[in-house]
Amino acid sequence: MNVYLFEFIGTAMLLLLGNGVVANLVLKDTKGSNLGWVGISLAWGIAVFCGVFISADVSGAHINPAVTLGLAIAGKFSWNLVPGYFVAQILGAMMGNLLVWLTYKKQYDATTDQSAILATFSTSPAIRNSFWNFVTEAIGTFILVFGVFYIAGGSIADEPISLGSLDALPVALLVMGIGFSLGGATGYAINPARDLGPRIMHALLPIKNKGTSDWKYAWIPILGPIFGAAVAALAFMAINT
Fold first, then answer.
1. Which stretch of 140-154, 181-195, 200-214 has the lowest confidence by average pLDDT?
2. Residue 99 belongs to what H/E stretch?
3. Digit-coded pLDDT (tens) for 158-171
4. In this predicted model, what pLDDT tens digit does every residue of 101-124 receive, in sequence order?
5. In angstroms, rounded to a whole number, what is the distance separating the alpha carbons of residues 44 and 33?
6. How far apart are the first and last CA of the chain?
7. Which of 90, 99, 100, 152 lies at a C-alpha separation of 20 to 30 Å from 16?
8. Is 163 left (phi over 0), alpha (psi -120 to 50) or beta?
9. Superfamily in which the 2-239 domain is placed by CATH
10. How is the chain split into domains, by residue range?
11. Nearest Cα to Cα of residue 26 among 13, 15, 37
């Protein structure tokens, strides 16, 4: 149970700090309206660092179903634990965004821009095109998962992979780099739980002027990262066998 608990906690921390900066940027009457994309990318890197650092020694700090899936495909993680990790990550993401909403409750009440409110929960594309949005998410997640294999010391085929606390910083820098370089097209979910859990919370919470949760787009930040993670795992296996 401890591994699931720490996946829950790590993912909640990721979403609290990650979507917290988005709320600070886009909601009405905050003090962070000048943060911009640089602030978002930096804060998400810090969010990853904190989530990984907290959970690494107990759960391995996946905090992302795509990472869990990639490791399992490559034989670096038990398939028996995969369903529990998925559930813990989604519930953790929901909790993280619940805390964002509680932190900025008065700002949510003052905000009438429905797209801004949704942006504090889930991702959306700059230009909506299902195929290319899927490709963007797949590429970003491929870079993340492929990088994690080597950052975590898994270049030898039979070597287990674990994100110990010292690996929190390079993984955070990798996510920061993805945000700066590849994030502008879709908002770089690169994590199914990061998008699905908060989108569920957006649908459930009593937020004034929240509008639609855009479920028509929701499959892309789920299946795009899953596909990218699977390809990354297969590429890693091909190189190291």
1. 140-154
2. helix 82-103
3. 555 656 555 788 99
4. 999 999 999 999 999 999 999 999
5. 16
6. 33
7. 152
8. beta
9. Glycerol uptake facilitator protein. (1.20.1080.10)
10. 2-239
11. 37
